[in-house]
Amino acid sequence: MSTTDFRRQLAGYGLTTATILYRMPDHRSVLQSYIWQNYDLAPRFPELLQFLDFWKRELDGPLHSVTVAHSRLIRPAEIVAVNGVLTLH
Description:
Number of strands: 3
Structural class: alpha+beta
Helix content: 10-25%
Radius of gyration: 19 Å
Oligomer: single chain
Number of helices: 2
């Protein structure tokens, strides 16, 4: 039985990490950082955009900048079909 994360990786999702810098609500000159990580589809990043929309709508700290890193963990060349089983005694 495969996990949901593994099935998403097979569907083209990759691990996305976003470093979000935002301003403190009471002290606008102070920047804080927040690290967000999830599986997402590059280059449109629908999951990240949904999270950023939530942030703008629900949280008080205005966004300063977002830096994104993305890596597909499973690539087509890494999947090899096995046609047999070897048993050692």
